[in-house]
Design a protein that fits this description.
This protein has 15 helices and no strands. It has helices spanning 2-7, 14-46, 49-60, 62-73, 78-114, 121-161, 163-179, 184-191, 195-215, 217-231, 237-242, 248-264, 271-274, 282-291, 295-323. The protein is globular and about 65 Å long.
């Protein structure tokens, strides 16, 4: 059985299903729903109907995008990948983002097992893939969607009732998820984080990106500043594994700033921005789309998403360097396998 699974490129592991699949799901989300929201926001704010309609179209294809992204990420053959467009759509329709994830993963693995096992592969493979995806969507999709929405609403309600404690927890956990090799964006969509909880998550994610960008400026200079500050703090994963203490400055920055964003300067956001931090300024664009593009909101975003994380992380990282807890070179982004 093991040899058969290997021959079909089916690797049953937590890494494949909860790291790789979620990471590619995030790419599917960004290529459809997130970029669609950005385009639609541009259209709505500028009055150009062309962009509004373009954005709405991109958003309407979120399910198919998730399906094909996960299939591609799991190394599916062409027929399975193309059929995953349908299974992703079915999962999204019946179970939301989480349903699309389950349907895409399940149907892709089943499709890979039957691929090239018959002489009528062009019929059998897409049929079995779609059948598997639609069946799992119809069977558990609505239940998954209901549970995820309920769980997400608990987080939002808890954050509103206990803004300091829950703000800290949401910011810290979502920030760590963003830096870890899993997808904070996918998690935010699955949980459908909105309101103050989404605002806290954005602060935590922004703190990780800006915090690492500033803390490691000594090693990575201007290129690293932009790569991490506007790209991803995931570039620091190898360094975190070598010395977990490097996580302290950006994480503490998020913990300090989150309660401010849930009590004094209340920040809100939506699922599209909650797990993105400062990546491509998506977290900020979505903040403006929810809270409005006013001078007050701009100041809050600058302080809580950029200036605050930069100052706190720099102070803490420099202190840790003086204490020898972070040594020179331990935040260097290595490329080329070096």
């Amino acid at each position: 059985m093991k040899k058969f699974l290997e021959s079909k490129n089916v690797n049953i592991s937590a890494k494949v299903y909860f790291i790789d699949a979620l990471s590619y799901m995030a790419l599917g989300l960004f290529s459809s729903l997130i970029i669609g929201l950005i385009i639609k926001t541009i259209g709505d704010e500028s009055g150009y109907k062309f962009f509004t309609e373009m954005g709405e179209l991109a958003m309407s294809l979120t399910g198919p995008a998730i399906g094909v992204a996960i299939a591609y990420g799991l190394g599916a053959p062409p027929l399975v990948t193309f059929a995953a467009v349908v299974t992703g759509a079915a999962g999204y329709t019946l179970g939301g983002p989480a349903g699309a994830y389950v349907a895409a993963v399940f149907s892709t693995e089943i499709g890979k097992l039957v691929n090239k096992t018959t002489k009528i592969d062009i019929i059998v493979t897409p049929f079995v893939t779609i059948l598997a995806g639609y069946s799992i969507s119809a069977l558990i999709g609505p239940e998954i969607d209901s549970f995820i929405k309920m769980f997400g609403s608990w987080i939002e309600w808890s954050t509103e009732q206990r803004p300091i404690i829950m703000g800290i927890l949401v910011a810290a956990l979502m920030g760590l998820a963003l830096t870890a090799p899993i997808s904070s964006a996918a998690i935010a969509f699955m949980l459908e984080l909105n309101g103050v909880a989404a605002g806290a998550a954005t602060i935590g994610c922004s703190a990780q990106m800006i915090g690492f960008a500033v803390s490691s400026y000594r090693e990575n200079k201007i290129g690293g500043l932009f790569a991490q500050g506007l790209g991803t703090s995931m570039l620091q994963v190898p360094n975190i594994i070598r010395n977990p203490l490097v996580l302290i400055p950006p994480t503490i920055a998020g913990i300090i700033l989150a309660p401010i964003g849930t009590t004094i300067w209340v920040m809100q956001n939506n699922p599209a921005g909650a797990g993105m931090g400062t990546s491509g300024f998506v977290g900020q664009i979505m903040t403006f789309s929810v809270m409005g593009f006013t001078s007050g909101v701009i100041v809050k975003v600058l302080v809580l998403h950029f200036i605050g994380p930069a100052v706190i992380s720099l102070i803490l990282s420099e202190y840790m360097r003086k204490k020898g807890w972070i040594k020179d070179g331990q935040l260097l982004i290595r490329t080329g396998g070096k």
